[in-house]
Structures are given as structure tokens and as C-alpha cells.
Design a protein that fits this description.
With 329 residues, the protein is mostly helical. The chain has 16 helices and no strands. It has a domain of 90 residues. This is F-box domain-containing protein.
Length: 329
């Protein structure tokens, strides 16, 4: 039906759609010229990155795995971001760079999770491309300073870099919460891609990557997602330490049990600021005198006295007075 709309009405519809919806409409032959022009006008950056990813998928596996190809693609991605950010005022650099980088990471994730994704190891090539983007970012000060002007003094506990695993942990948690066999193909692809991102391309990221990996391992162990966890460990080149994983679950259970057993003691001897605030609130509610009921709950609020002049009585007197004057006249 949408292809039968007049151009003016079609543009009104397009103004209320997101890029993902427009990308699907682009597949309709009759709408292709109009949708393509609209995307290039309103979603130029999305179109540039999506086109680059399509080119990356279209080339042969041998060419994709070559270092020169990955470097070229990664440079183009970062150049798209740099050219869009550098022309802005300096105080907007960081926010705009973050916004565009989020778009790149989101579009890449959408391709990994897409139903038409080629299941021929392409997810490993995507992981390699993302690692190359990260490496170029970390070793190109002119680009990195646009995103993080104080990067030389930044703590390694909270690093900034493209395609860090922490940006995709929400997908890992979602997959862990699903059943064992639900969306098996998509989960396998993502686990392979996600595991590849744990390669430490810089000492600056090593501690952060290790911490994120341990979180993902615990999440999978708690939910029983052993199959995806095995794929993740293989893709991340991490040893599958079964005894260590069992000990991790045991330690977590003991820590939780100890915390629950000593929670009352800590709340009375050394409470956290949040616990102190809650305790004060409870004391205030307990010791404060009861408040009087609101006026609208008082029974006498709606009691009418016999000598009260009501609006209907006034109108009635006025009405009969008008009738009498009419008869007299």
C-alpha cells in the first residue's frame, strides 16, 4: 500500500520512521529511488556505514581476512566519524563522536543478529574488523583526542575505545536469559563475534577486558548457558577451566550467604549511606504523629445547614420573581 501513496504523503510517512524501517523499505523496487534519496539526505552517516558493511560482506572470505582489507575498512569508518566531528565546535566533539560511534556499533550488531546474515564464519571476520577499528583508534591521537581530550590521563579502569565487550554485554545477558535452544543460530554467531572482541589489543584495555569476561562467565554459569559459554571461551582464546568455574559459582553462593547472614549487623554498625537514609525514613515514619485526615475526608465537610443559601434556592427565587414581574407588566 505504501508504494501507492503520493510523493508528498510518502515523505510525511518517512519523517516518522527510524533508519531501520527505512532500510527495510529500501528493498521495495518501486520505492528504492525515493527511499535512497531520503536516507542519503537525512541519514547520511548511517548510509555510509551501512554501505561500507555491505561492501565488507560482499567481498570474498579470503579478501576479508587480509590485514590490508581490514585496515582500509577501519580507516574509512574512523574517517567518516572524524570528518563529521572535526567541523563542529570543540565543546561538541566528545558528545558527537560518542553518538556516531554508538551508531557504528549498533549497525554492526544489527548485521550480526540479522536473519539474512551469512553463516559462513563471517562473524569472525566482523570481530577482526572491529579489533582493527579499535587498534587504529588507540594509535591515532588526532582521532582519539576528538573523543577523549584527556585520554592520556584516563584511568585504565574505565577506558574509552570502540567495540569494547562491555558495550555488548546486554545482548549476552539477554541470550543467557533465553531457553537453551531458542535462537540457537543467532546466539552462536553472537558468541563467536563477542568472544573475538576480548582480544587485548592494548595493555590499556587488559584489566577491563578481564573484568568483563569474568562477568559474562558468571552470568552464563548462573543461568546454565554452558553451550554459549564454551563458544565464547573458544572464540576469546580463553581456557575452559571447569573446576575454576565451579569454584566461582561456589564462592558467589558463599558470598551471598555471608552477606545475608551479616546484613543486619552491618546495617546497625556500619551502614552504607543508602541504608542510613532508609533507616532515617523508617524512624521518621514511626515516630512522627499521625497526620489529620484531609479536608475532603471529614464527614462535616459536606453537611448542609438549614439556613445555608444554596445556589438552586437563589435561582428558584430569581425565576419566580421574573415570572411575577412578567405577569404584572
Amino acid at each position: 500500500m505504501i508504494q501507492l501513496l503520493p510523493t508528498e504523503l510518502l515523505w510525511t510517512v518517512l519523517n516518522n520512521l527510524e533508519y531501520g524501517d527505512l532500510d527495510n523499505l529500501w528493498k521495495i523496487k518501486r520505492l528504492e529511488p525515493t527511499i535512497l534519496y531520503y536516507i542519503q539526505t537525512h541519514y547520511k552517516f548511517h548510509y555510509q556505514i551501512s554501505s561500507l558493511l555491505r561492501i565488507f560482506e560482499a567481498i570474498t572470505p579470503t579478501a576479508r581476512q587480509q590485514g590490508e582489507t581490514k585496515t582500509k575498512m577501519a580507516r574509512e569508518m574512523l574517517e567518516f566519524i572524524r570528518s563529521s566531528v572535526a567541523c563542529l565546535p570543540k565543546y561538541e566533539h566528545r558528545s558527537k563522536f560518542t553518538e556516531l560511534l554508538d551508531i557504528v556499533q549498533q549497525l554492526t550488531l544489527q548485521r550480526i543478529l540479522a536473519s539474512d546474515f551469512k553463516a559462513n564464519g563471517l562473524e569472525h571476520d566482523y570481530a577482526g574488523l572491529c579489533l582493527q577499528v579499535r587498534a587504529l583508534y588507540l594509535h591515532t591521537p588526532s582521532i582519539r583526542v576528538l573523543h577523549d581530550p584527556k585520554y592520556r590521563r584516563r584511568s585504565t579502569k574505565h577506558p574509552l575505545a570502540p567495540f569494547l565487550p562491555r558495550d555488548y554485554t546486554f545482548v549476552w545477558r539477554l541470550h543467557c536469559s533465553l531457553g537453551i535452544e531458542k535462537e540457537r543460530g543467532v546466539r552462536t554467531r553472537f558468541a563467536n563475534f563477542f568472544g573475538g572482541l576480548f582480544e587485548a589489543t592494548s595493555l590499556y584495555l587488559e584489566s577491563n577486558l578481564d573484568g568483563t569476561f569474568e562477568e559474562c562467565v558468571r552470568e552464563a554459569l548462573v543461568t546454565g548457558n554452558a553451550q554459549d559459554l564454551l563458544i565464547l571461551c573458544v572464540a576469546a582464546a580463553r581456557p575452559v577451566d571447569v573446576e575454576g568455574m565451579c569454584m566461582m559459582v561456589t564462592d558467589a553462593g558463599e558470598q551471598l550467604r555471608h552477606y545475608l547472614d551479616t546484613m543486619d549487623h552491618w546495617m546497625t554498625t556500619d551502614p552504607t549511606p543508602q541504608q542510613t537514609f532508609r533507616l532515617h525514613q523508617e524512624d521518621d515514619r514511626t515516630n512522627s504523629p499521625p497526620l489529620p485526615p484531609p479536608e475532603w475526608l471529614i464527614p462535616d465537610r459536606y453537611k448542609v445547614n438549614k439556613d445555608a443559601v444554596l445556589r438552586l434556592q437563589v435561582k428558584e427565587k430569581f425565576f419566580w420573581g421574573m415570572i411575577k414581574r412578567t405577569h404584572v407588566n
